[in-house]
Amino acid sequence: MSAQPSIESSESHPGILVASGDWTLANAGHLLALLAAAPESATDIDGRDITRLDSAGAMLLSRYAVKVGLGLATVEVQPVYRPLTQTVQAICENPPRRRRKGTGFNEMLARMGYAVEDYTREVLALVGFLGLTLKTALGVILRPARFRLTPTVHHMEQVGLDAVPLVMLLSFMVGAVIAFLGATVLRDFGAEIFVVELVGIAFLREFGVLLTAILLAGRTASAFTAQIGAMQSGEEIDAIRTLGLDPIELLVIPRLVALLVMLPLLTFLAMISGILGGMAVSIASLGLTPEMFITRLHDTLSVTHFWVGIAKAPVFAVVIALIGCLEGFQVQGTAQSVGERTTSSVVQTISLVILLDAFAALFFMEMGW
Question: 368 in the Ramachandran plot: left (φ > 0), alpha (ψ -120 to 50) or beta?
Fold first, then answer.
């Protein structure tokens, strides 16, 4: 049988309030009425006559004590209920203060330090993942029967064939824009004919491979991260390990090989499309014929420009594949984590591709290639 909760003034000490009965959730309505009728002040609250106490009753007792100018710490209860009242007091009467985000110089330095530390961990993880992938690839080379041809061909179709229209269209339009801007600027000097060299060198050395890598970074790296991240979230990676299979051999090697094969081919198509875009503008704006454009391109450009551009394609393929797969393996198991890692994969891949391209351009320029 439950006893109705009450709180009354002590007969011997009018300033002391005596609580009794069951202070539980079942009597919450009556406890709220007691809280509304609480006096303005009291010297103490004696809760030793409380027969039953739960978290809801302790919270309302805390509100009552605060309303009369006291606190739950001053309320004496039975020893069995003291841990509960202490916990409720810590939550209700001493809520944790939210640390205000600072905007000062020290806070700025702290955020910069955290960012540098995070980027350092990402770089170290990428280097370690590269070593693990190379080790696994060496094992596959020594035992070719372990190479999975079917998923490799499947990824080659997704990575390469499905991306051909987008790569060629974008490269054609960029080539046309470069030719148009070059013709507009060079016309003032009577040197419109040099648009041929401008378009050819730009796409053979830089734009062909760079545009292709950036497109695949946004299209393929994100797909790799989402695919592997979904498997990680669904514990399929753990199931693969339980079956005695290597996730690197099963998931990473086919994607890496597919990119190593298809990115140079897509780069070649991007080079051709960009030059065709420049040719179209040259024919329309400069009055050149296709024969004249191709002849000047053949006479003025060296094949070295082509090799400089195509040599960067395998490096970019490795970067795109490794970052995309690594971010997928780092998914924590929630849908939010999949989205965050997919975004991180695209940002890291594009940034690293552009950075490597800049260093490669400086290196080849200093080498005279």
Answer: left
* pTM for this predicted structure: 0.67
**pLDDT tens readout for residues 182-221:** 888 888 777 778 888 889 999 998 899 999 999 998 889 9
H or E, element range at 53:
strand 44-53
Confidence band, pLDDT 50/70/90 cuts, at residue 23? confident
Do residues 313 and 212 make contact, with C-beta atoms less than 8 angstroms apart?
Answer: yes
> Dmax of the chain from CA atoms?
115
* Residue 296 identity (one-letter amino acid): R
**pLDDT tens string 66-112:** 888 887 888 888 888 888 888 888 887 765 555 555 556 778 888 88
What is the 8-class DSSP label of residue 286? I
What is the chain's percent helix, strand, coil content, to nearest 5? Answer: 75, 5, 15
Please give the distance of CA 22 from its chain centroid, rounded to a whole number: 52
Average pLDDT over residues 279-294: 85
Give pLDDT, residue 102.
53
**DSSP string across 67-126:** HTT--GGG-EE-GGGHHHHHHHHHHHTSPPPPPPPP-SHHHHHHHHHHHHHHHHHHHHHH
Choose among 83, 86, 91, 84: nearest CA to 74. 86
CA distance 252 to 258: 10
Are 167 and 215 in contact by the 8 Å Cβ rule? The answer is yes
The length of the chain in residues reads: 369
Q: Which own/partner contact pairs does 74-79 have at CB distance under 8 Å and 24+ positions apart? A: 74/44, 74/45, 75/19, 75/45, 75/46, 75/47, 76/45, 76/46, 76/47, 76/48, 77/47, 77/48, 77/50, 77/53, 78/47, 78/48, 78/50, 78/53
312 neighbors 204 (Cβ within 8 angstroms): no
Nearest one of 196, 193, 190 to 178, comparing CA atoms: 196
Of the candidates 359, 364, 354, which has an alpha carbon nearest to the alpha carbon of residue 210? 354
